[in-house]
Each structure stands twice: as structure tokens, then as C-alpha cells.
Amino acid sequence: MGTIYDITETHEEPAPKPITDADVQGDERRWRRGYVPVAAGETTKADGTPDYGVFGPDTVVWEVFTHPAMVIFHHAAQKLAQDVYLPIQAAVRDYEPLNKKARAGVFTLFDAMERVTRGAGMHVPLWLGDTATAEHMASWLHKIHTPLKGDVIDSGRPELGGYDAVSTRETLWATYTEMHPMLCAYEAFAWNGWRAPKRLPAWKRDKFMDESANYAILHGADPDEVPHSMAELDALYAKYAEFFAHSETVQNQLDTGESILDVSARVGKKNWDKTQSKALKVIFVAILGMELPMLGALPRPYRLAHGLSPAKATWAAIVAKLFVPVAWFMQRPRFERKWIRTLWGPDGQRLIDSARKVRAEYLAAHPETLKSPQHA
């Protein structure tokens, strides 16, 4: 399920405290939820074969997610996609702990930084853990999201009705606003050696979607509705188009009418001190510094749903192309190793490193995996 719905318990302080480098780095408790993740391939199934979990080394999902580009670019891609699915934003408005802290007057940029890094990092066990690890995290996410229900998605568009975070509709789109942006970011910014980023062949894009189907079903999506190809995903976007839209009112609190974004900005400014710049640096690398190029990497309907004019939507796509040399630098080993621990946590780093090793060994033994079905 998409990370935007995380309602992990928070502990509010009466006043913000200065933060340190150790606070920014955090420990495994920021990401871990009652279970030490086991890396894919470290256990075996009943038949004695390696347990690779939901995906595995022969999948396109692993090809995409284990690439160094994802360490840097996944956070922004997913956030920008989920920011325009209105039921997700309604749940954020009504239940997100950061918004509760903002209303209580204690929200800080450090809180936002923790949320940004925790949200994506908690999903690595689902992608790169063994079956028991993935099932544990899926069950935990379902449990914490079950209470997230509301009668109003958008006060400015009451005809949209309400939302239920564990309904088949919401779990479907929590999954695909996570997986599809991952693919888009890879195709836009992932260098392979000196080979510039490019769109994957059609068969690989369809395989990515087919592989994501069981993942969506694990979270509670309707098996009869999940897409198995890019064409089927496009058809779903068309079916649910009314829920992907720019809205000036979806963030308005139902009791006061004030935008929760305005409240957060005001409280964050009030609680600012110079140590918060440490958190701002992380937010800049993960989100703010690449917002426009990442929008350009996403499909045009996403850009328009963010409120960009047609001209600005086109400009964002151009900026994404201009950003490619910067993306090369940001996925170099020295840069990536500097940020992987901060952005994904100790468990996430361990699982990513393990999956890269497992995949390299698997491909060396099964080179046919890299070939198209027609040439395998």
C-alpha cells in the first residue's frame, strides 16, 4: 500500500528540540515494524528453492528498483504521483500524524524529513524481502490503514463521495502510484554505464506491470481489476480519471476550512531554528530539488493534475531531459553511498545491497533472463 497513508504513532514534544546529525540519520526504529526483515534469497521454500519473496532476481521490478538511480529518485516520484490521487490526499488531510502535529503547533521540518524517509523505506521489505517478510509488512500496513475512512474526499467536489484506505479502489491506486512512478523515474534518469536513460522495450514494461499484479493483490486490490500490461494500466487511469485531478480544496480541513498545507507552513516557520537546516538538506535532496524534472518524467496527465498549465507541463518534460546529466552524477557510487543509509535506513540499505548481489549472481548463471521472450 502506498506510503502516504502511514499513521505510525507519533510522540509530540511540547516544543521543538535542536536536532543533531545522529537525529537525522536515525536508527532502525524509524523504519522497522516489529520484525527484522530477512533478505530475499536468504531462506528457502518448502521445495528447497530460494525464497525470493514477491518479486525476485529475474524480474523487471528488481532490475528497476535495485538500480542506483532509485536510491535518489524514488521518493520524489512516488510523492508527486500520490499527491494527485484525491482519496490519498483526503486521508492525509484527515489522519496524517504530521498534520496532527501541525494543528497542535509542534510540527517541524525534522518531522517532515522523518516522514519522507520512513515512508518509502518501510516498503523495501515488501520488494526485496523473503515471503514471510513481505507478508508481515503487508499485514502491518493493512492493520494501520484500516481505520482510515472518511465521508468526504474533497469539500469542493462532494460528488466524489468518500474514501476507505483498505478498499479495493484505494489499495489498487496506492500500489500503482507507487510502482508506475518507479518505472517512470528509472526510464527518465537511470544511466547504465555510459548509456543514457531510455524507455524500456514494450515487453519489459508489460512484464513490470504483470509482476506488480500479485503485489497489488497482496495489499487488497481486486484480482479481476489489477492491470497486467501498460495498456490495461492506461485503461484504469481513464476509468478513474475523476480521482486524478488538481484541486484547490482537497487539503481544506473539514472543520475549519483552512488548508492544512498553510497550517503546516505557518507552524514549521514558527518552530524553525538553524539545526532544522539539517533536515531541510535531506528534504531538498529527496524531494524539493528535483520536483520539476520529476514531474517532467511522469506522464503528462500527472503534470496537469498538479496544476501546471499545458505550456508548463511541456516545459517540465524539457527540464527532465536537461536534468539527465545531473542525474548521472547523483547516481554515482560516491553520491549514492552517502545517501542510501539516510534515505532508506539500515534495513533498507542491507536489503538493497543483498538484492543487488543476488541479482548479479542470478543473471551470471541465467543470462537468458535479459533476453526478450522472442529471443530467449
Automatic annotation (TrEMBL):
Residues 1-22 are annotated as: Disordered. One of its GO terms (molecular function) is oxidoreductase activity. The chain crosses the membrane at residues 279-298, 313-330. Residues 98-319 form the ER-bound oxygenase mpaB/mpaB'/Rubber oxygenase catalytic domain. Keywords: Membrane, Transmembrane, Transmembrane helix. It comes from the Bacteria. Pfam families: MPAB_Lcp_cat. InterPro entries: MPAB/Lcp_cat_dom. This is ER-bound oxygenase mpaB/mpaB'/Rubber oxygenase catalytic domain-containing protein.
